[in-house]
TrEMBL record:
Pfam families named among the record's database cross-references: Oxidored_FMN
InterPro entries noted in UniProt: Aldolase_TIM, NADH_flavin_oxidoreductase, OxRdtase_FMN_N
SUPFAM superfamilies documented for this protein: FMN-linked oxidoreductases
Organism classification: Bacteria, Bacillati, Bacillota, Bacilli, Bacillales
Protein name as annotated: NADH:flavin oxidoreductase/NADH oxidase family protein
Domain of life according to the entry: Bacteria
Organism: Chengkuizengella axinellae
UniProt keyword list: Flavoprotein, Oxidoreductase
All residue ranges annotated as the NADH:flavin oxidoreductase/NADH oxidase N-terminal domain in the record: 12-335
Keyword Flavoprotein: yes
CDD domains documented for this protein: OYE_like_2_FMN
Length: 410
């Protein structure tokens, strides 16, 4: 049996990752008012590095301070940030840990309080109740598209210079790249829209620019939706085709996810029976994808036991286990698995018992974000912290916006 704990993985460029556990991106929101990393962020990543995870993917790092996903994002757009990134990299690469910076542009999925205006492939606003929290976007000009591509490349170069060992392009969860991929959000008639080849062009050009600026040996990952789970959105077939094109381009690792702010399968109260049995949200898709591509794959979401992780790895449908919420509670979980202190963890749904709040599906994410902030302050997490207290705490701090102002990918 292949061990999720001890078996390393060597990428095609020779980079070795010490085990098969990948910390997927979570929303830390621990930048300061100048969009720089803080001591809390360093402390958080040092705990994860000491905790035994093989590959740490950061939370969203923005390529443009005019395009924030939420307040307190870190922005990497000029070399003034290098000393701060160097300290972050020093802490996050301890214990032979890989640390990859996730790079992102939110597009129209940027809250009104974070930006003055938002842009998107096409000037199509959000629908329904969620729309009041976002600006109506304007369509990006061609020169803005080209500028964003170059920004992704330069941010990746700064990450490399500062000691990060790789980057991840965020192409999922309804952010700008995901918007370009989706026929629902991208209705352009030029070379950046149309069929899947046109809608995929933005992502492909970003990858090529990063590769040009960082070199052949620097790991580049992409986070890609299996589907948007929305009518007229990015489909599973289009996702598989996009993954095949990314493999041909030379992408080093593909992390599978799904959904957007408008439709998140991970925020639903009910799960498919296959998800419960196999622990993973996207295993069925990964098995289909593996029939088409050989690129290293990571599936994130739902894993709770060593047995579930090892069964997934031994299915050969995936190469890495992505964890998020478990590492928000137990930052040393890989070490606990390795020394057999525990073999599985139980993470119950966080409910207040108040139906209209629980059905929103976002309170859980608020609860986990509060655990991250405890770790950032050097405190222990509180796995048994009552969710109603978490709700009241968030309500006092953020008001009614807590119902939607948290990221679905945690």
């Amino acid at each position: 049996m292949e061990s999720v704990i001890s078996n390393n993985y060597i990428l095609k460029n020779g980079v070795s990752i010490k085990n098969r556990i990948l910390k997927s991106a979570m929303s830390e929101a621990l930048g300061n008012h100048q969009y720089l990393p803080t001591e809390g962020l360093y402390r958080l990543y040092e705990q994860w590095a000491d905790g035994g995870t093989g590959l740490l993917i950061t939370g969203n790092v923005m390529i443009d301070r005019k395009a924030l996903g939420e307040p307190r994002n870190v922005v990497v757009e000029d070399d003034k940030v290098l000393p701060f990134l160097e300290k972050w990299a020093e802490k996050g690469t301890k214990n032979n840990t890989q640390l990859w910076m996730q790079l992102n542009h939110p597009g129209k999925q940027a809250f009104k309080g974070a930006v003055k205006e938002s842009v998107a492939p096409s000037a199509i606003p959000f629908e329904g109740k969620i729309s009041r929290f976002f600006h109506k976007p304007r369509e990006m000009k061609k020169e803005e598209i080209v500028d964003s591509i170059k920004r992704f490349g330069y941010s990746a170069l700064l990450a490399k210079k500062s000691g990060f060992t790789g980057v991840q392009i965020h192409g999922a969860h309804g952010y700008l790249i995901s918007q370009f991929l989706s026929p629902r959000h991208n209705q352009r008639k030029d070379e950046w829209g149309g069929d899947i080849n046109g809608r995929m062009k933005f992502l492909i050009e970003i990858y090529r620019e990063i590769r040009k600026q960082t070199g052949e040996s620097f790991p580049i990952s992409v986070k890609l939706n299996s589907a948007d789970f929305m009518k007229a959105g990015f489909t599973e077939d289009e996702s598989i085709y996009t993954a095949l094109m990314l493999e041909k381009e030379g992408v080093d690792l593909l992390e599978i996810s799904g959904g957007t702010y408008e439709s998140s399968p991970m925020a639903k109260m009910n799960q498919k029976s296959s998800t419960k049995i196999r622990e993973a949200y996207f295993m069925d898709y990964a098995e289909k994808l593996r029939q088409t591509v050989k690129i290293p794959l990571c599936v994130t979401g739902g894993f709770r036991s060593v047995t579930g992780m090892e069964n997934a790895l031994n299915s050969n449908a995936m190469d890495f286990v992505g964890l998020a919420r478990p590492l928000a509670i137990y930052p040393d979980l890989p070490n606990l698995f390795a020394n057999q202190s525990i073999n599985e963890i139980r993470i119950d749904q966080r409910k207040t018992g108040i139906r209209f709040i629980d059905e929103l599906g976002m309170l859980e994410i608020t609860w986990y974000a509060q655990q991250l902030r405890r770790l950032a302050k050097g405190r222990k997490t509180r796995p048994q912290y009552p969710v109603i207290f978490s709700f009241l705490q968030a309500l006092a701090k953020n008001g009614k916006e807590i119902f939607i102002k948290q990221r679905s990918g945690i």
